[in-house]
């Protein structure tokens, strides 16, 4: 019988990630609280369990991919640690706060299980293509065990340090992303006002010192990068509400660690206003439209 992996949370990211484990030959026992997610999972060859507790039974590895830290803590406290075989490796790939990541690690270890925080970057496209980047926090031995499984879902797997270090890397990376998208948006709006074409700014900045991912992969104006959400009516991609979540996580971490992140703070406020104006479901690059409106 194929080795068993439990997979909890079969949403936009979790489903394609779990589907890649099925393709690699694992028996994947999945569970989501939403019926439609379970139906889609069954079509992808995932064995849908009646509960999270049932999904972990007999598994050697359990992956969770949930919206936030509170839900991950609730999941780890719901009996799954007691239902699993001793020594099972629990990998949480959700993006959550560092304190919750450390708390779930403590719960897992007390129950005789192994645990890693392993958030991802690369979005829904990367999840489907199996090209995610995993940022992993936890013990060296657990990382070595997880790596071959994570490599079935991602192309880059980085051990960032002890428990919580994966979440720390994710939060720092996304703070750069959130700030840089606003910077790129401001530059295009300034270009419009001074009569410089989008393409000319792109052609220069994409190979000059203004080059960054927000410009060359998610260019916030239609045209220069045909695959960017701007060409698809700012459909996500990476929704502004998720960007706001990550910016707020960065500010929570900065406050508790005493780090000065003045631009991160301002960027979080800008996304907060955008989401409050009803734009949470729009790709975060749509922030350029709020910048243009002033
Ligand atoms: P999503 O909302 O599409 O999926 C989350 C799923 O978890 C939902 O289907 C929900 O029903 C399910 N769920 C919630 N509580 C549950 C529980 N107790 N048991 C079982 N299932 C439960 O979100 P997503 O886009 O897949 O994101 C998941 C995580 O990945 C988030 O932490 C997000 O920040 C992170 N992330 C998302 C992206 C992206 O581009 N979407 C990129 C990188 C990281």
List key phrases describing it.
single chain, 294 residues, alpha/beta, Rossmann fold, N-(1-d-carboxylethyl)-l-norvaline Dehydrogenase, domain 2, 2 domains, 6-stranded parallel sheet, 3-stranded mixed sheet, 14 helices, globular, binds nicotinamide-adenine-dinucleotide
How are the elements arranged and paired?
Elements: E1 4-8, H1 14-23, E2 27-31, H2 35-43, E3 47-48, H3 52-56, E4 61-64, H4 69-76, H5 80-83, E5 89-92, H6 98-110, E6 114-117, E7 120-121, H7 123-129, E8 132-137, H8 140-150, E9 154-161, H9 165-194, H10 198-205, H11 213-216, H12 240-257, H13 262-279, H14 287-293
Parallel strand pairs: 1-2, 1-4, 2-3, 4-5, 5-6, 8-9
Antiparallel strand pairs: 7-8
Helix pairs in contact: 1-7, 4-6, 9-12, 9-13, 9-14, 12-13
Bound molecules: nicotinamide-adenine-dinucleotide (NAD).
Structure description:
It is globular and about 65 Å long. Helices cover 52% and strands 14% of the residues. Helix 1 runs parallel beside helix 7 (123-129), helix 9 packs across helix 13 (262-279) and helix 9 packs across helix 14. By secondary structure, the protein is of the alpha/beta class. The protein has two domains: 4-161, NAD(P)-binding Rossmann-like Domain (Rossmann fold), CATH 3.40.50.720; 168-293, N-(1-d-carboxylethyl)-l-norvaline Dehydrogenase, domain 2. The model has no long low-confidence stretch (mean pLDDT 97). It has 14 helices and nine strands. The chain has a six-stranded parallel beta sheet, with helices on both faces. Helix 6 (98-110) links the parallel strand 5 (89-92) and strand 6 (114-117). It has helices at 14-23, 35-43, 52-56, 69-76, 80-83, 98-110, 123-129, 140-150, 165-194, 198-205, 213-216, 240-257, 262-279, 287-293; strands at 4-8, 27-31, 47-48, 61-64, 89-92, 114-117, 120-121, 132-137, 154-161. Bound molecules: nicotinamide-adenine-dinucleotide (NAD). The site of nicotinamide-adenine-dinucleotide has 26 residues, from helix 4, strand 7 and helix 7.
């Amino acid at each position: 019988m194929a080795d068993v992996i439990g997979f909890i949370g079969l949403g936009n990211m979790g489903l394609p990630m779990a589907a890649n484990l099925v393709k690699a030959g694992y028996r994947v026992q999945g569970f989501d609280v939403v019926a439609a997610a379970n139906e889609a999972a069954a079509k992808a060859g995932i064995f849908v369990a009646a509960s999270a507790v049932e999904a972990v039974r007999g598994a050697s590895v359990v992956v969770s991919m949930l919206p936030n830290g509170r839900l991950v803590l609730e999941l780890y406290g719901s009996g799954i640690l007691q239902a699993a075989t001793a020594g099972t490796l629990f990998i949480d790939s959700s993006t959550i706060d560092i304190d919750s990541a450390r708390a779930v690690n403590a719960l897992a270890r007390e129950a005789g299980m192994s645990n890693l925080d392993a958030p991802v970057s690369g979005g829904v496209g990367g999840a489907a293509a199996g090209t995610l980047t995993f940022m992993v926090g936890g013990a060296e031995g657990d990382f070595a065990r997880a790596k071959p499984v994570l490599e079935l879902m991602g192309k880059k797997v980085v051990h960032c340090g002890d428990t919580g270090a994966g979440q720390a890397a994710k939060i720092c990376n996304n703070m750069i992303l959130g700030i840089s998208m606003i910077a790129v948006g401001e530059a295009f709006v300034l270009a419009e006002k001074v009569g410089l074409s989008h393409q000319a700014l792109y052609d220069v900045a994409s190979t000059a010192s203004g080059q960054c991912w927000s410009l060359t992969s998610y260019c916030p104006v239609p045209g220069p990068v045909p695959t960017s959400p701007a060409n698809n009516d700012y459909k996500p991609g990476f929704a502004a509400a998720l960007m706001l979540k990550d910016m707020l996580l960065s500010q929570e971490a900065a406050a508790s660690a005493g780090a000065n992140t003045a631009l991160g703070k301002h960027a979080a406020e800008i996304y907060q206003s955008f989401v409050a104006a009803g734009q949470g479901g729009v790709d975060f690059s749509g922030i350029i439209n709020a910048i243009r409106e002033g």
